[in-house]
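Every protein is a chain of amino acids, and every chain bends into a shape of its own. The protein below has been through that process, and both of its lines are reproduced in full.
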Amino acid sequence: MRYYLLAAAISAVVSFALSLLAWRLGTKYRLAPKIRERDVHTNPTPRLGGVAMFAGIVIALLSAWLIFPLISGVDYFRLVFAEPGHILAILGAALIIVVIGVIDDLFDLDWMTKLAGQIIAAGLLAWQGVQLVSLPIGGITIGSSYMSLILTVFAVVLVMNAVNFIDGLDGLVAGVTIIANGVFFIYSFILSSSSGSEFEYFNLAALITAVLIGACVGFLPLNWHPARLFMGDAGALLTGLLMATSAVSVTGAINPGATDKSTLLPVFIPILLPLAILIVPLLDFSLAVLRRVSAGKSPFSADRKHLHHRLLDMGHSHFHAVLIFYGWTAVVSVGCLLFFFLPPHLVVVFLVAGLVVCAALTLAPLSRRKRVEIAVQNAPRESIANVGVDRYDPLDQAGRRASSAPKPSREEERQTVTALRSATGPAPSLPESGARSEPSPRSEPGSRPESVSRPAESVSRPESASRPESASRTESERHA
C-alpha cells in the first residue's frame, strides 16, 4: 500500500508545482480563452491544468517503473510492467488526448476532429491489449478480437466524453474523480489481495487509479472556487481516459467462471462499480445527447443545459452545486462497494437514505424560492410599488417580462426584501394553500425571504442588471 501512496504523492506534488507554473505563465502571457456564453465563470481563466496533471501522472508511472525497485530492493510492480506495451500504449493515448485537448482549449476545434482524436487514442489502447476480454455476466466471453476492440473503443470514448461534459464548475471534475477513484482503488486492491500473492497486490488498475487521484489532489487547490486554473478539455478527457482504462483492465481481467455462486454479487461489481462511480457524468451525457438529438442538433454541440447549469438555475450557489455532485457520487459509489462488506439489506437501506438526503438537498432551493414568491404575491401592492418585486412574482405580467433578464443576486434580493419591510413592516405570512390572495392592509410575520439561495451566476450580467444603488429605486429607474 505504501508504494501506491508514494506514487500518488509524486503525482500530486508534480501536478501541484506545474499547475502553479501553468497558472503564472497563463496569466502572464494571457493564454486564457474568451468567455463563452455557456461558461459559468466571469473572468478569463487559463486552461492548462491538464498539462500539469499529465506530467504528474507520467512522472509517477515512470518512478514506479524505474525508481521504486531501487528504493525497495524488490520490484513489486514487476507484474504491472511485465508487458511494457500496455504502459506505453496508455502513455501514448494520454499524450494524444492532451495534445488534442490543449489545441481545443486554445483554438476551439470542431467536434469531429476531437472525436477522431479520441477514437485514435482508444484504438491505441485496444490494439496494445488493454481491452475487454470477458464480461462477468454469466461467464460471457466476448466473441472475437474485433468485437473486443470495438467495445473497448466505444467504452473509452463514452467515458471520456461523459467526464468532459460535467467539467463546468470549479473543482467539480477533480473532486468527483477523487471520490470515485478512491472507491475504485479500494475495490481493485481488495480484488487483487484475494489472490494471496504479495505481487498480485500491485496491478495496473490500482496503479493508474492511484496516480490519477494524486494528480487531481495536486490540481484541486488551484481549481477550487474561485478557480485560478482550469484543467480544460486536456485534463477532463485525460481523466476520463484513465478512469476508463482502469475499469477496462479490471473488468477484462476477471474470469467469471472461476467464481462460485456464494460470491455471485461481487462478480457483478466490475460492471456495477464503473457505472456507479460514473453515474453523474453518464447521466449528464445521456440527457445531453437526447436533448440535442431531439432538437435536430449534433450530440456534441454545446449548450447551457447541463446538470450543473440546472443546479445553478434552481438557486444553488456554485459551492453548493459542487457539493451536491460530490454527494451523489459518494452515495452511489460507496453503496455499490459496501456489497463487499455488508448484508444486501443494509446496503439498500444506506442507498435509499443517502439518495433521499441528496434529493432533498438538490430540491431545497425550489421550496425556498417559492416561499419568497408567495410572500411577495400576498404583500399589499400599493405599499410596495416602488420596491421592484416584479422579478420575484412570476404570476405578475411584469414578472414574466423580467424573467427573461438575468436573475437577481442574493444581495439584490436582500435589498429588495429590506425595502419591502420598510414599506410594509414585517414580511407577510404564507397562506396554507399557497394560492394568491387579495391584497390586504395588514399582514402577519412570516418566513424570512432572505433565506432564498443565490440564483444562477453562470451568465455575465449586463450593466442594466447589475446591483442597484439602493433598494428603493423605481421601476422606471431600474429599467432605464
